[in-house]
Amino acid sequence: MENTGISKELSSLSNVKTKRKKEQKSNVKYLENKPLAEWKVNAGRFFVFLIIILFWEAGARAQIIDPFFWSLPSEILATWMQIILDGTAWRDTFFTFQSTVYGFVIGTVAGAMLGLSFWWSRYYAKVAEPFIIMFESMPKLALAPIIVLIFGLGMSSKIAMAVAITIVITTLTTYNGLKRVDSDLIRMIYSLGATRLQVFTKVVVPWTMPSIISALRINIGLALTGAIVGEYIGSTHGIGRMIFYAGQTYEIDLIWAGIFNLSLLSMFLYAVVSQIEKFLLAGMLHQK
Amino acid sequence: MADFKLELKGVTKVFESGSNTKTTAISNINMKIPDHRFVSIIGPSGCGKSTLFNIISGLMETSMGEIKVDGNKVNGMAGTVGYMLQKDLLLPWRKILDNVILGMELKGVSKKEASDIAVPLLEKYGLGGFEHSYPSQLSGGMRQRAALLRTILYDRDIILLDEPFGALDAQTRSVMQEWLLDLWDDFQKTILFITHDIDEAIYLSDEVYIMSARPGGIKEHLCIDIPRPRKPTIVTSQKFIEYKELALSLLSEETKKASQIEKKVI
């Protein structure tokens, strides 16, 4: 008797009204994760870029946005072509490029070495930790005026800025990787009679490498920011100096052309570092 | 020449957790192990088996007592015995061959020479063709083999194995047991083997030490008098079952005690 009671209730389940209005469609295509066609993605990106440029140009011509501040894409391009042709853009780009790369390399290598050095003594690491964190939380860009005063108007002050801004973040990233080293691996290699130096070179450094590598892409952007800010404060050359001077003389086209030029440099550096990262990680990581 | 390959005298370990609380993990452990023996250690979980191995391997200091290898005191000296921990602990960024020769590499043997020794062994012990694979490309059983070969190639007379097959499925496990016995035969090592599995302990060993609940001590020492080579079917023989019954009853006493201790702690 009870059974029939339950089956009655079950049969009434199918009569329960739901609020869904449409028939349910197949959602399989969201589950299968088919790779997207690359040309479609690229076409979409290009389309968005084109729309933005078109609206900018049309908006400025129709005076909807103020062309005094926003200029026009067509004029910006003309100005950029001009500084490319007369050579000033090349000279400034190369200056900024050099200070960024030097700062990036010095900051990353020194930061990684500093971070790795913490493995050798827990006492030293504990004592140093608050200083590192203090320096990390301080806005390094605030140091720019004093760094330019100390290192002068040439390239060295830009390199110093780039180093200041990249070194601590690399140290911290490395140190965090260091703290996650599998302690069983360390015991294993000690049980094979390893010396401390061997533990360091055979386990600790390779283990921490991916952390260091992951800092590269962030660092290249930071190094560029450091170099540009250094150039704003005072410099003989560089894209930052070009933009800063254009701003002071109200050459709006030139400001935008400088920013455009800077974006190209930034994209180039990012692409190169991404490739380096890919190459290095392929050699380091074999975990699936 | 000393009478025993490995000798433990009154080995005791007290952990100091906090300022006043002290926990005795193992207390007054004595063992005398002759050369070329296969010795298993079983005991309730938390009885300090792994602590004992850490002490023998020199990765941990004793609070009291002595560890002697060939009659020489080796307290706190890492590297005097081969030690394989539960996990395979292969370095994921090294190829299998480079992992297996790690011990020799640390001793300063040239890579060429080490490879010349290791490659035929990899071939012989079922890892042929995988020399240049990375650990992530191998199955659990093969990784365990590689880890064991690394320990063998480190070339110490005594090898400690801490539940090396604990994470493997039953089939792989019995294959690995045979494989381990072959290896033991070929290389004439003295093996100390921790396991949870009574069958495994009796089947593999010449001697079985049963440890008591915390603080861990030696409760019983059984000599397994079953001739070798043993067939896998031996587990159904009368003698085997007698050993198993004895070990089970001893162990269940200790397991009960261990659970009572845990209740008290809670």
From TrEMBL, chain B:
UniProt-listed Pfam families: ABC_tran
- Please report the stretch or stretches of sequence annotated as the ABC transporter domain: 6-238
Keyword list, A-Z:
ATP-binding, Nucleotide-binding, Transport
Do the record's keywords include DNA damage? Answer: no
Keyword Ribosomal protein among UniProt keywords: no
One of the record's GO molecular function terms: ATP binding
> Superkingdom of this entry's organism?
Bacteria
**CDD domains reported for this sequence:** ABC_NrtD_SsuB_transporters
PANTHER family membership: ABC TRANSPORTER ATP-BINDING PROTEIN, TAURINE IMPORT ATP-BINDING PROTEIN-RELATED
Protein name, UniProt field: ABC transporter
